[in-house]
Design brief:
The chain is of the alpha/beta class and 408 residues long. It has 15 helices and 15 strands. The chain is globular.
Length: 408
């Protein structure tokens, strides 16, 4: 960021916060403290004050209120060599809950997540392809079961429902094998209206790969990098972008659509990354060999019976992703590219090794080669990322949203 850009950002911060009344400032400071605890884990009040820029007295008042609201817990005093004992403060796992729904091409997953990111209950629906009636019935029944798994006094602490769905899902009917006319129903679905039929919980909809990217940023290795591209391999490959530790969703919520990157195929034709680096292409290999491609999605995942198909798929996907890494870095000099997906961890590790081995052989003139690292969340990333949305909206800070308020 240039000096001029920094001045503009500070001006924007002052403009956005200048009209806040005392109650609004207090709410912002509470969100700030909760966000710091969420990102960093347990912290003492003096450390929160030092890192936030708030006075120790202000932090003390906020922590007392958050403790009274059962949003945080105080730990046992920890004595150092000098000074008063340090009392760590942590998020209360029961302080807030959220529900995340992932609508995938082969299955839907519903997760009830607590304030610390732990999954308290999870449900799955498998299908050949998703249809609205089936998915919303699954959400209704799963929500009832999830809420029923909580003690009655905690059910009011569910902040909302996050829905992670592929961008323009209705356009993928040919790849998922769905009838075009029937699958077109998704184009006219109003998620808020559908969910309002059985609950008054707020609903937030996000691109599925963007949701996975957010999960990696909040709970995975992503917090260790400032700027990176994120790749998620599901039935179809998708991606996300993080700049200055913030997930960038884009004007239409489709930023980081890496699956649409054009790449040269071995026969010289131009194809998209999604055509050569998605699990659905592995499904095709398995079917051609006489196997059951649905077994790739069975939990827990074990792809060892398909090694004859997996090995060439890793080679093909690794080459394509190496090209995609450099293409992405030609636009933004990302510090790293993180690779995750709905695939077994040993397969993910082999794929990352293949990408690393391929990049040095590509033409990288004018580019700084990024680090390529494994993501840490795995197949649950989309549901977890979806569940993050309502929590952020309720009590945490998402600075990128702050700067997007005036977007027309």
């Amino acid at each position: 960021m240039s000096r001029g850009d920094g001045d503009k950002s500070m001006t924007e911060i002052r403009r956005l916060t200048s009209g806040l009344n005392q109650s609004g400032v207090r709410a912002y400071n509470e969100r700030l403290i909760l966000t710091m605890l969420q990102r960093n884990g347990p912290m003492a009040g003096r450390d929160l004050a030092r890192q936030s820029g708030l006075s120790p007295q202000t932090v003390s008042v906020i922590l007392r209120k958050l403790q009274a609201d059962e949003m945080v817990l105080r730990g046992a005093p920890q004595r150092g060599k000098v000074g008063k004992p340090s009392v760590p403060v942590a998020l209360n796992p029961d302080g807030l809950f959220s529900v995340g729904l992932k609508i995938g091409r082969r299955s839907a997953d519903l997760a009830l997540m607590d304030f610390t990111g732990e999954i308290r209950a999870q449900y799955r629906l498998g299908y050949r392809y998703p249809m609205p009636a089936d998915v919303f019935a699954f959400l209704r029944d799963g929500l009832d079961a999830a809420l029923g798994s909580l003690p009655a006094d905690l059910r009011t602490r569910v902040s909302g429902i996050g829905v992670a769905a592929p961008f323009e899902l209705w356009n993928w009917h040919d790849l998922v094998g769905a009838p075009a006319e029937a699958f077109a129903e998704w184009k006219h679905v109003d998620f808020q209206a559908e969910v309002a039929a059985f609950t008054d919980l707020p609903v937030l909809v996000v691109n599925d790969a963007t949701a996975a990217c957010r999960a990696e940023l909040v709970y995975g290795i992503g917090k260790h990098f400032r700027d990176y591209a994120y790749v998620f391999l599901g039935a179809f490959i998708g991606g996300g972008i993080v700049l200055n530790h913030l997930v960038v969703e884009g004007q239409f919520g489709n930023a980081g659509s890496l699956g649409s990157l054009p790449l040269p195929s071995p026969d010289g034709k131009i194809v998209q990354l999604i055509d050569v680096a998605s699990i659905y292409s592995l499904e095709g290999r398995v079917v051609a060999a006489g196997g059951d491609s649905q077994a790739l999605w069975s939990m827990p995942q074990d792809w060892t019976p398909f090694e004859d198909q997996v090995a060439p798929w890793i080679d093909q996907t690794g080459r394509a992703l190496a090209q995609a890494c450099l293409a992405a870095c030609a636009v933004i000099d990302f510090e790293a590219v993180l690779v995750d997906g709905a695939l077994p961890q040993p397969i993910r590790a082999r794929l990352v090794d293949r990408i690393r081995a391929e990049i040095p052989h590509l033409d990288a003139r004018g580019l700084i080669q990024p680090r390529v690292e494994e993501g840490h969340i795995g197949a649950n990333a989309r549901a977890i990322g979806a569940a993050c949305g309502p929590m952020i909206a309720a009590v945490l800070l998402d600075e990128f949203s702050l700067f997007s308020q005036d977007r027309s």
